[in-house]
Amino acid sequence: MELSTPALLFPAISLLLLAYTNRFLGLANVIRGLHQQINETNKQLIARQIISLQLRIKLIIWMQILGVLSISFCVAAMFLLFLAAGDFGQWAFTISLVLMMLSLVVSLYELIISGHALNIELEDIDC
């Protein structure tokens, strides 16, 4: 494996972490909005949303942790390949790819929960 192979993963991981951060900030805004509404609207509906939000926050934190570990192992792979420790570099890169895949799987699960949360929000709207 060449040094440039793990380097190809850098832009993808950086964009992935940016997307995860944006999702986290979006959730923070929703939570702040719910905090203001808690005394004004249906508390049962808001309680269901809060349960969903708590799980989504945990998932996004895990997505970010896995993404950071992925880029860390990618950097380690590049360093090891630079030092001509090819076998260790390949293992580090493999771990980096597995961590990125896990991050994406957690992201998919969070996306499903996000869709469910939107359906809870729509229950309050009468058609």
Description:
By secondary structure, this protein is mainly α. The chain has helices at 4-7, 9-37, 43-82, 86-123.
Number of H/I helices? 4
Give the termini distance in whole angstroms.
59 Å
Helix and strand pattern: HHHH
Rg (C-alpha, Å): 19 Å
Briefly note the structural class of the backbone: mainly alpha
* Morphology: rod-shaped
* Major sheet attributes: none
Average pLDDT number? 82
Kindly state the percentage of residues in helix: over 70%
DSSP strand count: 0
Low-confidence stretches: none
Number of domains: 1
Provide the β-strand percentage band.
under 5%
Protein name: II family cellulose-binding protein
Organism: Cycloclasticus pugetii
InterPro entries: DUF2721
Keywords: Membrane, Transmembrane, Transmembrane helix
Can you give keywords for this protein?
127 residues; DUF2721; 4 helices; transmembrane; membrane; transmembrane helix
Lay out the secondary structure.
Blueprint: H1 4-7, H2 9-37, H3 43-82, H4 86-123
Keywords: Membrane, Transmembrane, Transmembrane helix
Protein name: II family cellulose-binding protein
Transmembrane segments: 6-25, 59-85, 91-112
Compact description:
This is II family cellulose-binding protein. With 127 residues, this protein is mainly α.
